[in-house]
Design brief:
Length: 351
């Protein structure tokens, strides 16, 4: 029985001339697009001109790129022509995957706080509503290119001015409320205050195609995930992109058991972002619990955020219990939440 061969098995490794033609074609297209985008009137030039502007103003000024999509049609036409010329050529378009694991697409611009993405939601992944919805500080405009026959369910959550400026606490966070589904319409543009508004797409009969403009400036308000059925807050994470990148890096270092990187973890426990501080402490405790006792105690006593102090105190009692009790110590898979620890979105088991 012959094993099925991949198209990559036919890649022209031995054809140096063909591979050179591929490199030249890709480089030329990339240079052309960069020049077009950076020239006056181009997409990147328009985004750069909005540096420092509020999210509302940025979305309003960039809406023409969603209303008139001839520039996108031209770009996709060039990409398809390149593929037609050689199926092993990869057009200079960055592929992205959605957080739900099914959505994917093309990142068309990513500059400062602004991202413009062409998203495809497969029909098979948009039949039933997801269990959770997520709120990210910022604003968004989403042009529906193809609705796929789907319905839209809107989700809303209240956010106070104090929460937006750094006073968010999970214990008093408002619940999420969902609206009845309504048909998603081809050509419509959804305008969202994404700190307070989210949505789910359900009942799709065909693939859904969306052009999404998101403006997400740094914010002390965290990203929040809610259980749709109950409206309950279930998870909190840092919304700043730099904090998110560092959090992913710390998780990877912890999984590799890199105890020599402990100073990086310790540095992040002093972050301005309270969710980033607690995430770094959780990762550090999971990496090397015996070496973190003093830092955990200091966070429990003096962290500026009351819920971080509470989570740190609970973790300290769990890992370093009073004399005569048995604590839990372990490696990278150690859980920091049990019945003795607070049930909050800050207290999450490492899987």
């Amino acid at each position: 029985m012959t094993a099925e061969r991949s198209r990559h098995d036919h890649f022209p490794r031995a054809d140096a001339a063909r591979r050179q033609r591929i490199r030249v074609a890709v480089a030329a297209a990339d240079a052309d697009w960069r020049a077009i985008d950076s020239a006056p009137g181009g997409l990147l030039a328009a985004i750069e001109a909005l540096r420092g502007a509020s999210a509302d103003i940025a979305v309003a000024r960039l809406l023409p790129w969603l209303d008139d999509m001839r520039w996108l049609q031209d770009r996709l036409g060039v990409a398809l022509a390149l593929l037609a010329a050689d199926p092993f050529l990869r057009p200079p378009l960055r592929l992205v995957a959605g957080s739900d694991g099914g959505t994917g697409g093309l990142l068309l611009a990513d500059h400062g706080a602004v991202r413009l993405t062409l998203l495809v939601r497969p029909a098979e992944g948009s039949v039933e509503a997801p269990p959770n919805c997520v709120f990210v500080p910022g604003r968004a405009a989403i042009r529906v290119i193809a609705s796929g026959g789907a319905s839209l369910i809107s989700h809303e959550v209240a956010v106070s001015a104090a929460e937006e400026t750094g006073g968010f606490m999970a214990s008093v966070a408002a619940q999420c409320h969902s609206h009845p589904p309504r048909p998603l319409r081809n050509g419509e543009t959804l305008h969202l205050d994404t700190a307070r508004q989210s949505h789910s797409l359900v009942g799709a009969k065909r693939d859904i195609l969306l052009l999404e403009l998101a403006v997400q400036p740094p914010s002390p308000l965290p990203i929040r995930a809610y259980d749709i059925a109950s409206g309950r807050l279930i998870h909190v994470s840092a919304s700043r992109r730099d904090s998110s990148f560092r959090a992913m890096a710390l998780t990877l270092l912890r999984q590799f058991g890199r105890t020599d990187a402990a100073p990086l973890f310790a540095s992040e426990t002093r972050s301005e972002d309270f969710a980033a501080r607690w995430n770094a402490m959780r990762e550090l405790v999971a990496l090397d619990p015996a070496a973190t006792r003093s830092r955990l105690a200091a966070m429990a006593a003096a962290d500026p955020h009351p819920e971080v102090r509470g989570a740190a105190a609970a973790a300290e009692r769990l890992i370093f219990p009073p004399s005569g009790e048995t604590g839990r110590e372990g490696g990278g898979g150690m859980g920091l939440c049990t019945s003795r620890a607070p049930s909050t979105p800050y207290c999450t088991d490492h899987q």
